[in-house]
Write a structure and sequence with these properties.
The protein has about 400 residues and is α/β, with parallel strands linked by helices. It folds into 3 domains: about 120 residues, Immunoglobulin-like, CATH 2.60.40; about 170 residues, von Willebrand factor, type A domain (Rossmann fold, 3-Layer(aba) Sandwich); about 80 residues. It contains 10 helices and 18 strands. A hairpin with a 2-residue loop joins strand 13 and strand 14. It starts with a strand and ends in a 5-residue tail after the last helix.
Length: about 400
């Protein structure tokens, strides 16, 4: 399956003799291929069975696990780990799932490491190797330091094992689960109602089965006189002359878009080379040179690129609003969201993605202004900020 790489600038023409700032939108696309062979899975489900999971949470978790078991093929490998203050590795059978009961505290690190151990023992580069972690609480036994847990997820990702995290209810640490998913290259989900669990499991499984490329890295090597001011929605990795972004899995039919801000020194009229984009990690690495025309006047801005810029800024704004609200500055947090929504409001008429983002930003701003910033609101904002970032949409 051939992946394509395309680039669009916010302005195709810039004025000579003056410094410029341009946005570079990079699109990585995998064509749909309904006839492709389903990739084999190497998956470990790590399930919290601590006391707080008693009742509906555990019942729906077990239903989701039964669904997962029913979707596996003989070519797949599936592992099951449950944890409270103790960690247990089980055979992934319907009988074993039925026997799971809620217990004690939350040894999240122990469960996670057991899941990684299972996946690593069965590792095969030709498979989709993943750990799926589900919890409703705080890590309070074993390793509890968020930085250490995220570092472990990053180390395993380097070995080809990704991490998907799911938080259930209002009591888990969303910053921890989001950081672990980010470091592990997978998704983070906030599940407000436990009856959402089977559908989320199905969504993640569908994504895994549609994976066509893993471990992709996108590098931009800037030309002399060009610096990367930032990758919108991502902390810069590398230097202003060479930025590297590790991408999540690419699925069939999916397009991921990343937006870079470029500062360009004054140039003479003609074609100005800005740099080279390199996509690596696939069997067929791609290279793309990016240039801009320099003339006596500028061209109008590209509306599609600006849309990607404002969508990326909106995801950043949600995290900034969380930070302000955590300081009890709810009015500033609401204003951050409204400022992010303003440029999107001019392009929402026919774009469902923009319409949905505007609705989310408006609802969150209203909640903050009415002083209803609670654990659920914060988790919703965190999950939306995570999922709406460029490269994850």
């Amino acid at each position: 399956m051939t992946i394509s790489l395309n680039a669009r600038l916010s302005r195709p023409v810039i004025a000579e003799g003056a410094p410029s700032t341009l946005y570079l939108a990079l699109q990585i696309t995998a064509p749909a291929d309904p006839n492709s062979t389903r990739p084999p899975l190497n998956l470990a489900a790590v399930l919290d069975r601590s006391g707080s999971m008693h009742g509906a949470k555990l019942a729906y978790t077990k239903a989701a696990m039964r669904f997962l078991i029913g979707q596996t093929l003989p070519t797949d490998t599936l592992g099951l780990v449950t944890f409270d203050d103790q960690v247990e590795t089980l055979e992934p059978t319907l009988a074993a799932v039925a026997a799971i009961e809620a217990g004690g505290s939350t040894n999240l690190s122990g469960g996670l490491l057991a899941g990684y151990k299972l996946t690593r023992a069965r590792f095969d580069k030709a498979r989709i190797n993943r750990v799926l972690l589900l919890t409703d609480g705080q890590a309070n036994v074993g390793v509890t330091d968020p930085a250490a847990l995220a570092k472990k997820a990053a180390q395993l990702k380097e070995q080809g094992i990704g991490l998907i995290t799911l938080g259930v209810g209002a009591d888990f640490n969303e910053d921890l689960l989001a950081a672990m998913a980010e470091a592990g290259g997978g998704n983070f989900h906030f599940i407000n109602n436990p009856d959402e669990l089977p559908a989320i499991f199905a969504e993640e499984l569908q994504g895994l089965l549609a994976t066509v490329a893993q471990g992709l890295d996108l590098t931009f090597r800037a030309a002399p006189g060009v610096t990367v001011a930032g990758v919108i929605g991502y902390p810069p990795t590398g230097t202003p002359d060479q930025v590297i972004v590790a991408l999540p899995d690419l699925h069939a039919g999916e397009t991921k878009t990343l937006v870079l801000a470029l500062d360009i020194e004054p140039a003479f009229a003609g074609e100005r080379w800005l740099g080279r984009v390199e996509l690596t990690g696939d069997d067929h690495p791609l290279n793309l040179d990016v240039s801009v025309t320099v003339a006596d006047s500028t061209a109008p801005e590209d509306a599609e690129v600006l849309k990607e810029v404002h969508l990326a800024r909106a995801a950043e704004a949600q995290q900034k609003a969380i930070d302000a609200a955590d300081r009890d500055d709810h009015q500033t947090a609401a204003q951050i969201l409204r400022d992010a929504a303003a440029p999107l409001s001019f392009m929402a008429s026919s774009d469902p993605t923009v319409q949905e983002r505007l609705a989310n930003l408006s609802a969150q701003a209203e909640a903050l202004e009415s002083e209803t910033y609670d654990a659920v609101t914060r988790k919703q904002m965190k999950a939306q900020s995570f999922r709406n970032r460029p490269g994850r949409r």
